């Protein structure tokens, strides 16, 4: 057999292995082993929302931050001195106790079956749906990492990043411009700390006293009252969407058109001259159904970033520690 034939066979075998790994993610993965999975997760989330009206965007954020660091493997949830959750920008993440509650409920019904990584993915989908957004079939079958990846947290997009840097970040994970605009639309609900946009108000582009010119002047004035340059609370939480921050809708895109995007990384999607993201913002601003359809597809793509499947990783019994 020639070296060319051997190389070809090796490549075909590798491709088959990759396809087999991806095929292990299926929306019916737990159909027999944990048939009540979705209803259990939904029940826990509905109860949690009675105690914390912001829990839905918090849980979606956990899924985002987990997937962007070494893939969707629940490494974010691990405790320890080298944990991801104790390093910026994860210091402001929340909702871990609700993930614990879901895991506890599932262990009673389906012990040792459902991974923490799949809990994050499913909790994100149900949170969006309960918040008024779209519903989609979540591919399941991920397994949990045995290690945290603190060294990789720089991959989490920052509110201070330029559009170019964020687009490159997304591209490196197989996500295109439509995915970027679509997934940014998750900021249609939830809140952000003053610290995440103070530079837009008082030192834009490192110029002392300068306010971001793409920020609506009236909106900027109200933000300055909430987040003063001196003596204010940098951790104070401000609604990402000043009118419907508890609802998942397309109002986020209307805000960008009106230069009322809270975060710089959001407003740049619309205010960057010549960017291909502008047309996508306009499309979603005029059609909530198109945004919802795209959001479901992009969430599935993001949830497919480097999952552990087969015999890789483990199914944690406690999401905060390895078995």
Polypeptide structure, described:
The chain is mainly alpha-helical. Residues 1-23 have low confidence and may be disordered. A two-stranded antiparallel ribbon has the order 1-2. The protein contains 13 helices and 2 strands.
Strand content: under 5%
Terminal CA distance:
46 Å
In terms of quaternary structure, what is this?
Answer: single chain
| Helix/strand order, N-terminal first | HHHHHHHEHHEHHHH
Strand segment tally: 2
Strand order of the largest sheet: 1-2
Structural class: mainly alpha
Count up the helices.
Answer: 13
Largest sheet: 2 strands, antiparallel
C-alpha geometry: globular
Measured on Cα atoms, how large is the radius of gyration?
21 Å
Instruction: Indicate the low-confidence ranges by residue numbers.
Output: 1-23
The whole-number mean of residue pLDDT values reads 93
Proportion in helices: 40-55%
Name the features:
13 helices; 2 strands; mainly alpha; 323 residues
């Amino acid at each position: 057999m020639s070296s060319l034939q051997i190389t070809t066979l090796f490549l075909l075998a590798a491709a088959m292995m990759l396809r087999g790994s991806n095929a292990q993610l299926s929306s019916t993965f737990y159909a027999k082993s944990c048939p009540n999975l979705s209803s259990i997760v939904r029940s826990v989330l509905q109860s949690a929302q009675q105690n914390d009206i912001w829990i839905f965007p918090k849980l979606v954020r956990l899924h985002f931050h987990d997937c962007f660091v070494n893939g969707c493997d629940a490494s974010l949830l691990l405790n320890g001195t080298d944990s991801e959750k104790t390093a910026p920008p994860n210091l402001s993440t929340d909702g871990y106790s609700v993930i614990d509650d879901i895991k506890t409920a599932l262990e009673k019904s389906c012990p040792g079956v459902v991974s923490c990584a799949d809990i994050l993915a499913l909790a994100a989908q149900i949170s969006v749906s309960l918040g008024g957004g779209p519903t989609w079939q979540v591919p399941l079958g991920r397994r949990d990492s045995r290690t945290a990846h603190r060294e990789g947290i720089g991959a989490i997009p920052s509110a201070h990043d330029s559009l170019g840097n964020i687009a490159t970040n997304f591209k490196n994970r197989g996500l295109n411009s439509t995915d970027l605009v679509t997934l940014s639309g998750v900021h249609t609900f939830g809140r952000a700390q003053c610290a995440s946009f103070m530079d837009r108000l008082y030192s834009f582009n490192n110029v002392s006293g300068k306010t971001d010119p793409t920020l609506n002047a009236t909106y900027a004035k109200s933000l300055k009252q909430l987040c003063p340059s001196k003596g204010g609370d940098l951790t104070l939480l401000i609604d990402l969407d000043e009118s419907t921050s508890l609802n998942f809708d397309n109002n986020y895109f209307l805000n960008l058109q009106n230069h009322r995007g809270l975060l710089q990384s959001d407003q740049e999607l619309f205010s960057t001259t010549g960017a291909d993201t502008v047309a996508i913002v306009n499309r979603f601003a005029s059609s909530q159904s198109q945004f919802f359809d795209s959001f479901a597809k992009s969430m599935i793509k993001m949830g497919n970033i480097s999952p552990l499947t087969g015999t890789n990783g483990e199914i944690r019994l406690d999401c905060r520690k390895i078995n």
